[in-house]
Amino acid sequence: MADVLRGRVWRFGDNVDTDQIIPAEYLVSPDPAYLGKHAFEKARPEFAKNVRPGDVIVAGSNFGAGSSREHAARALLGAGISCVVANSFARIFFRNAINLGLPLVEADLDLPEGAQLEVDLAAGKLRDPETGRETPFPQYPPFVMTLIAKGGLINYTKERLKWESGSA
Fold first, then answer.
1. Overall domain count for the chain
2. Which residue range(s) make up the domain with 11?
3. Across the chain, what does the average pLDDT equal?
4. What is the pLDDT of residues 142-154, one digit of tens each?
């Protein structure tokens, strides 16, 4: 994972639920690439066609409400989203995203759609490169930073088991 994530902003409002992120008919596969092709298909049909690797979602409150399935976070990763910044997150979505290695940042950020954003997870700050304005956010504890850096809990566990068995 890069020290600083940089991407173009996609704006969303409050209460974006998991059915908006990935419609239920696509939950037949756990494949991130497949899910990413259908991300926001009904809510924002242009999203999957125009999102680029590294882009960032900036949203209001309660992002990821709804289902406990991991598919929503997996779809965002498959679409190329590097980070989601929102005022608040649904708790189960937050946990699923971290378990999959998708960074989430709780901050109130006023940037327009299409603006560039830099996210420094280690320093706990968001930066608008156009204006230089910085917005602090609560930093993750070291273990969560490790999970994100390893690409999620499964990758972390696989690496750990190899190390403990002496095959790393």
1. 1
2. 4-165
3. 93
4. 999 999 999 989 8
Residue pair 61/106 in contact (Cβ under 8 Å)? The answer is no
CATH number at residue 137: 3.20.19.10
| Cα 86 to Cα 50: distance, rounded to the nearest angstrom | 21
Q: Is there a contact between 127 and 120 (Cβ–Cβ < 8 Å)?
A: yes
Residue 69 has pLDDT above 90, yes or no: no
**Tokens of residue 88, six digits:** 């608040």
Closest CA to 126 of 140, 108, 143: 108
Residues sharing a CB contact under 8 Å with residue 82, sequence separation 6 or more, in sequence order: 5, 7, 53, 54, 55, 56, 103, 119
